[in-house]
Design a protein that fits this description.
Number of domains: 1
Shape: globular
CATH architecture: Sandwich
Largest sheet: 9 strands, antiparallel
Order of helices and strands: HEEHHEHEEEEEEEEEEEEEEEH
Strand content: 25-35%
CATH class: Mainly Beta
Number of helices: 5
Distance between the termini: 34 Å
Radius of gyration: 19 Å
Number of strands: 18
CATH topology: Jelly Rolls
Structural class: alpha+beta
């Protein structure tokens, strides 16, 4: 007969602090473990095993898809126990919470609408310059868990407000999603919007891709050289067009398969939403 001690979970010496049963799966991807350890240090405690496994699945998935190396800056803005944990980067450097604008009350780690809530003023500086990648090799993406109430705002972007500008922008305008992808003076209006993944990717000088509301479009628009500015989250151009929407993820870097990234990010956010 099993004793009470044998029935209870225990900490396996290689489990990274997660409760362990003999048949229970634990995270093992090295990049996932590094990220989870950093989040635990920021939070003061590890996340739940289900959250950790979802993170592990994400890293394994983007590596299997061949998109991992293209992601140069990314944050999972949900799952962690605290705002400090949520600002630990999945990839790249940690973003700056400019002027400490976001506070703990803006952050929801799980549930139906996980993520960091904008207020129309606060924003993050990703620290990742769009000059770090080639003109015709770039992507930007977010996961929108709640729409803005403001009519003309940016979820993510780089660039300057003075013309000419070859900015990168993921924009919410008049209840639709718009994008610029190094396409000076030319924007693409999706004609609709959808909660979830929204991104753009360019791998050539003549057109770029947009994925919004599950619809992938190819947009004919010539590319222009970079503005050399860093990507802002919840804004662009150093704090312009700030959104009050809620974001659960962002990434930027080289061109990649938007549908593949959408699948992995959506699975990750959905799993976390159900777990906490």
């Amino acid at each position: 007969m099993a004793t009470l001690a044998q029935k209870l979970p225990y900490t396996h010496p290689f489990a990274g602090g997660y409760p362990y049963r003999g048949s229970q799966r634990l995270p093992s991807d090295p990049d996932a473990l590094t990220y989870l350890a950093a989040v635990a240090a920021a939070d003061g405690a590890p996340v739940e095993t289900a959250v950790a496994v979802a993170v592990d699945d994400f890293f394994r998935g983007i590596k299997a898809d061949g998109t991992f190396s293209a992601i140069k800056a990314a944050c999972l803005l949900c799952g962690a126990r605290t705002l400090a944990g949520a600002l630990v980067p999945l990839v790249g450097t940690a973003p700056t919470n400019v002027a400490d604008g976001f506070v703990e009350g803006d952050y929801t780690r799980g549930g139906a609408t996980p993520g960091l809530q904008g207020d129309g003023t606060s924003y993050l500086d990703s620290g990742f310059s769009d000059a770090s990648v080639d003109t015709d090799n770039i992507h930007a993406a977010v996961y929108v868990s709640a729409f803005p109430t403001l009519s003309n705002t940016r979820y993510l972007g780089s660039g300057v407000t003075t013309a000419p500008s070859s900015s990168m922008q993921l924009q919410h305008f008049l209840s639709r999603h718009w994008t610029y992808n190094r396409s000076r003076g030319f924007y693409y209006d999706t004609g609709s919007r959808g909660l979830g993944f929204f991104g753009t990717s360019r791998d050539n000088s003549s057109n770029y891709d947009v994925l919004s509301a599950g619809v992938l479009d190819s947009v004919s628009a010539a590319s222009f050289s970079t503005d050399g500015t860093s990507f802002k989250v919840f804004a662009y151009a150093g704090g312009v067009g700030n959104t009050d929407g809620r974001l659960a993820f962002y990434s930027a870097g080289e061109a990649l398969d938007l549908e593949a990234l959408d699948s992995r990010v959506t699975a990750l956010v959905t799993a976390i939403g159900a777990a906490v």
